[in-house]
Amino acid sequence: MFQRNILSELEKWASKPNRKPLIIRGARQVGKTTVINQFSDAFEQYIYLNLELPEDKRPFEQFENFDTLLETLFFLKNKLLAKRGKTLIFIDEIQEAPVALQQLRYFFEQAPDIAVISAGSMLESLFNPGISFPVGRVEYLVIHPVSFPEFLGAVNETSVLSYLKKVPVAKFAEDKLMKLFRTYCLIGGMPEIVAQYAASKDLSALQTTYESLLVSYLDDVEKYAHSNAQIEYIRHAIRVSFAEAGKRIKYQGFGNSNYKSREMGEALRALEKALLIHLVFPQTAPVLPLLPDQHKSPRLHVLDTGMLNYFVGIQQEILGTQDLSTVYQGTMIEHVIGQELLARQYSALHGLNFWVREKSGTSAEIDYLFVYEGKLIPIEVKSGAEGRLKSLHLFMDHAPHNMAVRFFAGEISISTIVTPGNKEYYLLNLPYFLISQIEEYLKWFENQIAKMKEK
User: Fold this and answer.
1) Over 277-294, what HEC string results?
2) How far is CA 213 from CA 2, 40, 41, 274, 446, in A?
3) Which of 182, 193, 203 shows the shortest CA–CA distance to 318?
4) Phi-psi category of residue 401: left, alpha or beta, with phi > 0 → left and psi -120 to 50 → alpha
5) CA distances from 312 to 206, 266, 324 (A)
6) Which of 64, 242, 376, 387 is the most buried (most CB within 10 A)?
7) Inter-residue contact 219 to 206 (CB < 8 Å)
8) How do residues 307-348 score in pLDDT, each as one tens digit?
9) Residue 88 pLDDT > 80
């Protein structure tokens, strides 16, 4: 069992003086229950309720008043009500009893001393109109697949992890970091996959686990959809999403189908609510605020790059490459960079962002935008000469700052570049494996720019 970075976010939540019940969001199989079980070690008492079990579900359905509910929960789990202020209650699979979600408000209003966390399979709740959330009386955290730093911890590479966090990274550590990052890119960040690999280091043994994960998502749709048509739309959307991941898509005819825009739009939005995919609409301005243009085609990201690799069959290609940007026409490394950017975020309001400029006959696109100190920092994921970064030059010509970042297969460096529009800017070149440390490197980058200007 390995530690997840979100544990520190849970500790911050638990220490808040005005703490509200917490709802953990995340797709199936991203380790929600495991994380909360680990977090429970910080409390004297732990009450775990799985509302798929009738005996755990019954007290919420037989609810008469909150005091009785509270006494019943402590009694059934043989815990002391006198220690309520040192107790964590975790209500798992809460969507199985919609009334339990509504009752979270009473924990906030009448028992704020008790730490309460709930979680559930979001895909099921999408098809249940009886579920409503106690707005204003709960807060949210999102769990994503395992990040590269978490992967290093899982495979017991603690020394390498410590060097990853040193800015700038020591040159002698780069080869091993890149080798381990390549493995992470290959297998992805689904906790079951990572734990299995950490135990056996056998890549071939992971195939059945990937298959079972994919089948479980398909089975969820069949179990909870209301109509045969809805089943078919969403099953098609799941299958095709892996093949279309990293690309800009159109709803009409998605995946070479005859489905209409409305049908595929509803199916893809359902998968997005379940956090199985992300529909990323482009930003068209180089400045804040972030206002993605919903009228333009979105870029599609799936839950996990490892599952993408397995589904489209590029695992062997990753093993044999020297530069990850050559795999799958560069889609795989761009996708994993996005996954790492998401892994840094725990708010349900945050996501990925990219930039486009589309005019008749021409177009420009920046892979990602990163918000840093009130600036939109462009991030490109490319190898090759700096002169080929035409979209980046165009963005920087209109940006009110002089900082840009490129992730590539080379070493750390800073380039001074002049655009065709005669604007000078600085480009921070970083090896792929440093994406998780982007904010720390931007601070370092600013200091380096200041030193360069002093000379």
Assistant:
1) EEEECCECCCCCCCCCCC
2) 20, 27, 29, 15, 43
3) 182
4) beta
5) 15, 24, 16
6) 376
7) no
8) 999 999 999 899 878 889 999 999 999 999 999 999 999 987
9) yes
Rounded CA gap, 352 and 283, in Å? 10
In 3D, which of 204, 218, 18 has the Cα closest to residue 112?
A: 18
Candidates 69, 26, 15, 31; CA nearest to 47 is 69
The rounded distance, in Å, linking the Cα atoms of 405 and 370 is 10
Question: Can you give the length of the chain in residues?
Answer: 455
Residue ranges in 321-362 assigned as alpha helix (H): 331-343
pLDDT per position as a tens digit, 130-157: 777 788 899 999 999 999 999 999 999 9
Hey, what are 68's tokens?
């009785």
Helix spans in 130-256 (H): 148-154, 158-164, 174-187, 191-200, 207-224, 228-244
Q: What is the largest CA-CA distance in the chain?
A: 74
Instruction: Give the pLDDT confidence of 409-441 residue by residue, as tens digits.
Output: 999 999 999 999 999 999 999 999 999 999 999
129's CB contacts (< 8 A; 6+ apart) are: none
Looking from the CA of 409 toward its CB, the CA atoms found within 13 Å total: 14
Supply angle C-alpha 305, 309, 315, rounded to 5.
130
Judging by DSSP bridges, how do beta strands 299-302 and 277-280 pair with one another? Answer: antiparallel
Residue spans of the domains in the chain: they are: 6-142, 355-454
Q: What mean pLDDT do residues 441-450 have?
A: 97
CA 305 to chain centre: 11
Q: Report the C-alpha gap between 319 and 185 in whole angstroms.
A: 10
> Are the C-beta atoms of 395 and 389 separated by less than 8 Å?
no
Cβ atoms of residues 308 and 332 within 8 Å = yes
Q: What angle do CA 207, 316, 408 make, to 5 degrees?
A: 120
Report whether CATH 1.10.10.10 matches the domain 6-142: no
Burial class of 270 by CB neighbour count within 10 A (0 to 12, 13 to 18, 19+): buried
pTM summary value:
0.94
Instruction: Please tell me the distance from the alpha carbon of residue 270 to that of residue 286, in angstroms, as a whole number.
Output: 30
